[in-house]
Amino acid sequence: MRLPIALLAVLLLTGARDPILVPEVSQHEVQVRQGFTGTELLLFGAILTPDGTRAGRDYDIVVVLKGPTQSIVVREKQKVAGIWINADSAGFRSAPSYYAVASSRPIRQIVDEKTAAIYEFGLRNIQLSPIGAIDPAQQARFAAGLAALKTGEGLYKQAEGGVKISEQVLYQARITLPSSVPTGTYTAETFAISKGWVVASATSRIEVRKIGFEGAIARFAQNSSFSYGLLAVALSVLMGWLAGRLFALI
């Protein structure tokens, strides 16, 4: 029994030296209404020892903000006879609708490639589940294309040096949400890293939801999809009929 007890004592002493993160977010709810032009989130907090005192080591901080996952199909376009047409395509069942990462230093200087892949540090390390069998090289090409497309839309971003650390105690990162930000529950994961190892992590949640008339329409479409479809078809027919009558009078 001496060996297990000694091992447990070593583990407890080692764990006691690990820091804890106390994260906070400037907004736990983002309300999207008519005229919404985007907003900026401040993710901040403290790095402390388990007894609440200042941590005595140098740490790097990486913050990853992810929106709800969605299935998506990426299509590759090719120019044939002067016309751009859809060529190959690949589907992913778990692509984040929004992804942003901020770090205190370039990620390659903080962790190795394996650790970065495990924790999804960086656009190239977003974990995507392909739909069906796909060649690894082809999957990497389409994943890079998806990241480039989402980056152009302002929905994927990477800010190396975007986390500021003060006196190895307080940290902060500013991440912008565009006007086209998808609604849903977002997770803000904060990681404290020392000598290439993730030694502490914490998670906060943010709700992005539509309110007002847009919110009512979105809820109606989600909760009563069949009725919403019928109403959309009826409105389309009505608008077509009105347009036809108007042109007949002119």
Give a quick summary of the entry.
The chain is α+β, with helices and mostly antiparallel strands and 250 residues long.
3D structure, described in words:
By secondary structure, this protein is α+β, with helices and mostly antiparallel strands. It has one domain (22-210): Macroglobulin (MG2) domain (Immunoglobulin-like), CATH 2.60.40.1930. The chain is built from six helices and twelve strands. It has a six-stranded mixed β-sheet. A four-stranded antiparallel β-sheet has the order 1-3-10-9, with no helix packed on it. A hairpin with a 3-residue loop joins strand 9 and strand 10 (170-177). Helix 5 (212-223) crosses helix 6. It is globular and about 80 Å long. The chain starts with a helix and ends with a helix.
